[in-house]
């Protein structure tokens, strides 16, 4: 893997809310991770090369003032949104469903990695995007939890 690809991956992690990304090409694995820090203006990404296989975890952007208030779940990265775990299955959540903090709401497929989008707080789904199987941009509203 050349340095330009690695730099592109570091830039991707720095611009998104992805906290860990592992990419394997041939026999080289690059792992990029960062510690979420809302006060930092620049996320420091660290790179480690290993021969192990990896995973990527995904969080979500939330907009809301306090616990118990309505929270808007926004797309943390650009990708293809999936509302169900697999084609033909029931969606993870529907309007009116009660969700628990950490429950999977969606999956966003980006760079052949499936990133789980989870509920930032417990509550009831008030709004949900109509997009399923289509592209979402960073910051697009996915759901609202009250």
What does this structure look like?
The chain has 1 helix and 12 strands, in the order αββββββββββββ. The chain is mainly beta and 146 residues long. The strands form 3 sheets. A 5-stranded antiparallel beta sheet has the order 4-5-12-10-7, with no helix packed on it. Residues 37-67 have low confidence and may be disordered.
Biggest sheet strand line-up: 4-5-12-10-7
Q: Helix content range of the residues, please?
A: under 10%
Low-confidence sequence ranges: 37-67
**Structural class, please?**
mainly beta
Distance between the termini: 45 Å
Count the E strands.
Answer: 12
Q: Main β-sheet: number of strands, strand sense, barrel status? A: 5 strands, antiparallel
Number of helices: 1
Element order: H for helix, E for strand: HEEEEEEEEEEEE
What is the molecular shape?
A: elongated
Strand content: 35-45%
